[in-house]
Every structure is written in structure tokens, then in C-alpha cells.
Amino acid sequence: NHETDAVKVYFFPFLGGGHQIPMIDTARVFAKHGVTSTILTTPSNAAQFQNSITRDQKSNLPITIYTLTTPKNTQLPEIGMSAGPMTDSSVLLEPVKQLLLQHRPDCIVVDMFHRWAGDIIGELKVPMIVFNGNGCFPRCVLENMRKHVVFENLSSDSESFIVPGLPDRIEMTRSQVPSFRRNKSEFTDRMAQIEEKSLGIVINSFYDLEPVYADYIRNELGKKRWLVGPVSLYNRSVEDKKERGKQPTIDEQSCLNWLNSKKSNSVLYISFGSVACLPMKQLKEIAYGLEASDQPFIWVVGKIFNSSKSDDQTCSENWVLDEFEKRMKEMDKGLILRGWAPQLLILEHDAVGGFMTHCGWNSTLEGVCAGVPLITWPLSAEQFINEKLVTDVLRIGVQVGSREWGSWEEERKELVGREKVEFAVNKLMVESEEVEEMRRRVKSIAEKAKRAVEEGGSSYGDIDALIHELKILQIGKDV
Ligand code: UDP
């Protein structure tokens, strides 16, 4: 009986944390909907996720990790390490190809950044779906920039232009656009090709967050798409939330105990994601800005950019993060976390009332789902576009005022000063009519997010619709 065969889906995430995490959440929810899910990843990523997958297996979810072995002497970026979109992941394709030839799953879901996958998987005739790691709004902005001439008549990088063809008036400058998107490139062409060879795109978003843009993708861009998120909400237990993505290196209980001692909505949570790497002189400006604002905070200090430039060295000699940390602790003003923080648990704590974020898509959605307004501090990737969604379209955040896109590998040119930090923190954390409005708006979106993933919700329905299509293809294949 064909109808009772479980649909087998392979999930092939890109390498960095911001890509692995949402795709594993997606694999998990597909398994909950009866699909047999297999995640294809690298050895050290597999080790990071094994605990949470074992827990899923114990509760009888049909989900496994398959570890791809790569040719000797090839080094791949792993979770938390810099894996920008330009990273060449093509060495992984040969083992993936062999696997597909052997097992022939009903479908493979491929991250959009594995752009070499288009030709290889296309040839094998295994149905392919592209996983779009960011939302509908950034997708539309980037697509319209690719299709229309937008940069040619600009006299400088700081001159603004209106993104053509969009339902909202979105103003940007060239310096906010990822360098690999400023010109027509092999990169963007290949990403477009992989979509053309796919059945459609899976997007980590939900209809009520960006209905106009969800419709735009279908009606104006002519894409078949399924909105299946926010996928972070598929982590229901404390264990899952804590270990999502990685074994936490921070004792979550002491962090939550500290939050328990704080008033509702009083603490600012600060994190710049899994890849960002700020120089010490920028950390110093953040620290002074925070101290001047006098608002309680939890700050996850990620990797620090090891600058060879003398001014940064001088700065770190004169100013020591450890001392700031000690002082803040003694005054009971703030916690500095070094390592991998349990972000979902922190964000959903009642004491957290604001989130200073680099606007990575996952963090943005996680803040929204927790009903917390944002301070936007975009750095790289499509983060400046996500900022526009937060501040101009949804109106649930304030900008710190960062202006310049920077690549992952190089030291950032732009330094955001302490005055800007203090101003943005006070604007968001000191209650005002404006902030009350933002809070009301973001809480209402958070409610809609929860409804979207429940039975009867839009994302729940899109997952079932996609699985139904795969079942029909499966039956067709066997006949
Ligand atoms: N994250 C976390 N703890 C950390 C840092 C990051 O759990 O200390 C998670 C965060 O919750 C999010 C992901 O890592 O799910 C980061 O993805 P995002 O798209 O926000 O940014 P990226 O790391 O890709 O720049």
C-alpha cells in the first residue's frame, strides 16, 4: 500500500550555525508530521547536535543524522566558525551524490547557499526543495535588486535609492547591500538556477509576519513557496531550547537565576549571533554606552576580532573587558557571557524587555517570537535588509545607527560610538508611549507566530501541503 509508506526527506544544511540550526528544527517538525527525516552534515556539526537528536529518537521521532565524510585534507568550517555564503562547500557534494544514488529519498531539502547542488542533484532526478534561510521580505528585496538596475546612477555608496517594485517604500544605500549582491555575479546566478531546478522554496517565516511579501513571492515572483516557521518554536522542552544548535557552554541556571531577580521587561539582552567578530575597540564603546545608560543587561561577547592595527592594541591595553565585567557584576548591573548562550531561554524570560541584535534572520525571528522589541545593529549578510523589516515595516525596533556592511573576514571599518549605543538603549528600555506601542505590536505578532505553528495554523498547513505533494510524487515514482 503506497499511501502508508513514510515519505523520506534528506535535509542538507549549509555549514554555519545560523544555517544548521533552523534546518535541524525543520527536519524535526517534518518528522513530527510523519516524514522520515535524515540530516546530512559534517562530523563536528553532527557531534554538536547528537544529544538533541538522540532525545528525539527516544521519543520515537523518525529522525537521524548522517555524517558526511569529506576527502582527506579538506577543511570545512564548522558551527560557530565563519561560514559566510562565499564558503565553498562543493567538496560535500560528491558524498551527497553517492548517498542519493544509493538510497533515493523522496526529496532533498538543500540550503540556498549550496549553490553547486543545482546541477548535480538536478541530474539525479531526486526532487529538490531549496531552503531559504531568511524571510519573505529580504527575499523580495534581494530578488528585485538582482532583476532591476539600481546602483548604476548612484554617485556614492552613501546615496540612497528606493528598492524598485516593492509594496512598501524601502530606502537603502549601496553601502548596506552585501558586496556579493552589488553586482551581477556567478553567486547570485547560481542561486537563481538552483531554485529553477527545484520544486519550490521552503521559508523560515509565517504568513502573518509579512503577508504582503509572502503573497508577492507567489504572485509577482512566481515562486512556489511553503512558509513553515518560525522553526525555533518547534523546540518545546527546556532541554531542547537549551541545547538547540549546540551544547551550551554557559550555565543556563545561574543566568536564569540572575534574571529571576530582575523586574519584568527591565533587562536588555545583547548578542550578535554565531559568526560576528567585533574588535576590542567596538566592545569598549558598547561597554561605555551600556554603563552610561544604567540599564541592566546580559551581553554575549562572541569572538573578538584580533586586530593587528596598533590603535586597537593600544585600546585593549588601556581598557580591559574583564575589569568592566567585574564592576558590572559587583554592582549587579550586568552579566557578560562568553561562549554559547541559551538564547531561546533568555529571550523568553519575563525580565528581558529588549534585544540588541545584529539582525541575523534567526535572531530576529526569535526576538519577535519572544515578544521583545529590538535594537537593530546590522553588520553583514542581508542584515541591513532585515533591519528595514523590523524598523520600517513592522515598527518593532529602534536602530543603533550602523551604516556600513562589512564582510566576515575583514575588520569592520565602521565604529559605532558609545553615544549612539547609550541613546538607542535608553530609547528602548526607558518606558515611553512609543515603546509601549512597539511592545504591543511585537506581542501581537508573537501570538500570531504561536498560532501559525499549531494545528490549524498557516505554517502547520503549509507543512502538510508540502508532504502531501511529496506523497503524490512518491506514488507516481512507484507506478
Ligand atoms: N545562538 C545561540 N547562542 C549563542 C549565539 C547564537 O543559541 O550564543 C543561536 C541563535 O539563537 C540563532 C543562531 O544561533 O538561532 C544565530 O543565527 P542568526 O541567523 O541570528 O545569525 P548568524 O549566526 O547566522 O549570523
TrEMBL record:
InterPro entries: UDP_glucos_trans, UDP_glycos_trans_CS. It is an enzyme of class 2 (transferase). It comes from the Eukaryota. Pfam families: UDPGT (PF00201). Its EC number is 2.4.1.-. One of its GO terms (molecular function) is UDP-glucosyltransferase activity. Keywords: Coiled coil, Glycosyltransferase, Transferase. PANTHER family: GLYCOSYLTRANSFERASE (PTHR48047:SF81). This is Glycosyltransferase.
